[in-house]
Fold this sequence. Notes:
Largest sheet: none
Amino acid sequence: MDGQSLYDVYRTGLWVQVGVNAAAGVWALAAHRWPAVRNRALWVVTVVAQLVVTANVVMASVLLARYDWEFPELHMLYEFSGLVAIGIVYSYAQQMKPRRFLIYGGGGLFLMGLALRSLFMS
């Protein structure tokens, strides 16, 4: 795969990141309010959303390291901030179990925002 093709996949991955993290975030916030929507599928969607973030960081890193791709200033900061945010969300959710749906909801929406920022700055 050449650099341009990987970049196209990466850009598509950012849009997927926006959608899946928005869905996971809103669903988690709804689960805090309405226990009836709490189920295993919420956690599956949350894990998929976080894996998409990780895949996007890997693709951006490959573009930078292997293809010497030029990203706008601070672009990689937004990318790696997603990984840090996932770790913070997980650690706080373990500590504050009664509010874990709020934490995962806010975290999902934050990750969505990072992807939007990455999309519109490049």
